[in-house]
Amino acid sequence: MESYSRRWFLGAGTAALASVGGLTACGSSGGSGADGTLTAFVYGDDAAKIQVKSVNRFNASAAAKKAKGSIKLQKVPATDYPAKLRTAMGSPNAPDVFFNWGGGSIKAYREAGQLVDLTDVIASDPVLKSGFLPSVLAAGGLDGKNYGVPMRGMQPVILFYNKTVFEEHKLQPPTTWDQLLDINAKLKKAKITPFALGGADIWPELMWLEYLVDRIGGPQVFEKIKNGDASAWGDPAVLKAAQTVKELIDDGAFGKGYSSVGYGNGGAPAVFAKGKAAMHLMGSWEYSTQLGKFPDFAKKNLGWCAFPQIEGGAGDIRNVVGNPTNYWSVNARTSNKDAAIAFLRDSASLAYTKELIANGDVPATSNAATLLDASPNPEFAKFQYEMVQKAPAFTLSWDQAVDPNVATPMLTEVNKLFVGKSSPTQFVSALKELK
Prior knowledge:
By secondary structure, the protein is an alpha/beta fold. It has helices at about 10-20, 50-60, 60-65, 80-90, 105-110, 120-125, 125-130, 135-140, 165-170, 175-190, 205-215, 220-225, 235-250, 265-275, 285-295, 295-300, 335-345, 350-360, 380-390, 400, 405-420, 425-430; strands at about 35-45, 70-75, 95-100, 150, 155-160, 195, 275-285, 300-305, 320-325, 325-330, 395.
């Protein structure tokens, strides 16, 4: 399930979007046909079947007739999506509506005047205003403005634990940092690595810093960075988070050789499932990953909890980091804004919500709570939903939130910190230079 939301941004995705800031709004007239048909670009993975149904439902609706428009869905191959979207947005055949990841993925389009500011539209539309969890709706925006409407499942980062290992060693899931450190000490004494970590892929390391900065300094620290204030990397919370990471590494929390263990190739999930590591900080897709690779473990021994509170920190234990969801945004050059916005409303519908749940997703819609019994794993789905529903803030994964030209060098610095090639102070200094 992580394929559509998580890893697009690295490699080709970053390169494709790095030069998007050179786009201009002129020459982009939207993909509207002469017959009132609007074009919608969607990431062409298996989950796009839900958007196909949504388009068909909308086109047959009274709302489409009233708005005098219909939607033509164009599925763009997953690996090509960022590059093809960028090219299309710079041409006369730009889509009217398009799938994106919020945050940094749309910042250049906003700066080029290519996005409809949906803030007032959502505020004045009961369906859109009350149709989604507030923290997820806000997470896809920029500078406090809404530029997208949630349209896929949520993917918060969760602290998973091996129930069997915890029971054998009489451990309870940690709610405070001191408890976590105490658990680490007991596990190491039993010669069990506290945490699995796919350091070879780098992005799993990022999750640690995301939560530590939030718990130490609160979500406003990264919010400043996300909105373009590079000096905010100098906030004391960032340095403290980096120092805490170094302490964990030096203390053996990730064992040895974690920098050569991957996530995408199944290395870290295997270490966790086989009991060689007791915990794993990972996106909610860890459940589906384990279900596919180690189904017995996923069904019987996989536990989950929130990332612990740090004593004296400014961040609420209910705050979440990760991938809030994916979003529909509207091209400012569309010839029929009313039809585009009418189409967005379907993403808040009961039918759409049920289809997401049947696909194994946990929707960001406010009507999902009573429907999650139909999920493949109702207990896990309800935990995720309540976690996000109660979250005062949901911080978008840093590599998706920052400008694309900053994402790769940022990850390089994260990796240098984790492999000991830079100190916490050097890490902060390097990040402050990223612009």
